[in-house]
Write the structure tokens for this entry.
Amino acid sequence: MKGTSSLYRRYAHSFFIFFMIQGLVLVSASIATAAGCVNWPKAMAISEIARMPAQGKVVLVQPFTDFAKVSGDEWLVPGLRDYIADLLRSSDSLRVLAGQSAVHSGQVGPPDFTVSGTFQHIGDKMRIFIRLQDAKSGQLLAQPDAVFPYPENQEFFSKTAEAVRAAMKVMNVEPDSTRYDAVKDATTSTRAYESFAKGRQALETYSTDKADVASLLFTDTKRIDYKSPLGYEGLIALYSFLALDKKERGGNYSSELQKAEAELVQMQKLTKPGSLVFAYTPKKAVKKIEFKAKLDNRFLAGEAAYAEGLAVAQGGDFKAAVIALRKAVQLVPEDALAWYNLSRIESQLGNAQQSQEARQKAYELNPCIEK
């Protein structure tokens, strides 16, 4: 990753400076400071929806109901929803809505299925009921359940995954086995997953006020199970969000990117391979761009493409700049500045329609981008 660090150091300090390129002025600090206009939960939901399969059945996954209401089990209400949603996302035939994407689901259309359920913790046993319903008629299609020792037992993951697989069969879809197993086998510790799930909930408020809480919880995930990629991916996603927030404000965000990169390097050294929750990268690329080091994370790869786009644009190669910036917005579609700069360079090349579309994306994310 040494080459990538050099790339960041070379360009990250200059992202908020005017770049004069044959009359083209790339986004400046005066524009970028409008980050207060960014609705981050909505922007992140738009990004998640943009990275869904282009076609497929729509599934709405809802929070689970705690039937027994045992103190300390509150995290399972969103935690089970997110775990099941991640398993369902392993299928390219499903477009899965959960959390923020469910709140901002207008771009996806009405769901075909809803998944909900209850869990009951009695003594040292946990029982989970998953309800699969036809979203239009409300008809109950299946109700697979899972029973296992609780709290500290790896059957939490395997038994729940078996129940989800049964529901997928009723939906007539198949998961990608590698991605499915990567979610199922991410950790064998329910304690580690509890810390991760709580950290994820803090992160997915997309409020910088919750950053310290998320950081502590993801760090605790690593402490409990340092061989699991969950804690590392959580911290990578957190530092990437903080970098993006600073970027939109016109600040220096290189230190956040370096922290994200350090977690990625550590994860690659200590854990088993597999792309999980936050590292998902679209399969279809606009055009392959060769970097000096492998960036197996969409935020870091997207930022490298953004830096590449600005660098080649500064040298006057607008065609190469467009290719790089298209790659950047494909990987990080929540980056309003990347969309805005793409719009300006498309305009420079005379691509009026592409420029208008990119600018509209920038405005959708940040209505104040030119104020």
In short: The two ends are 37 Å apart (CA to CA). The CA atoms of residues 55 and 93 lie 7 Å apart. Residues 1-25, 28-33, 280-293 have pLDDT under 50 and may be disordered. The chain is about 50% helix and 10% strand.
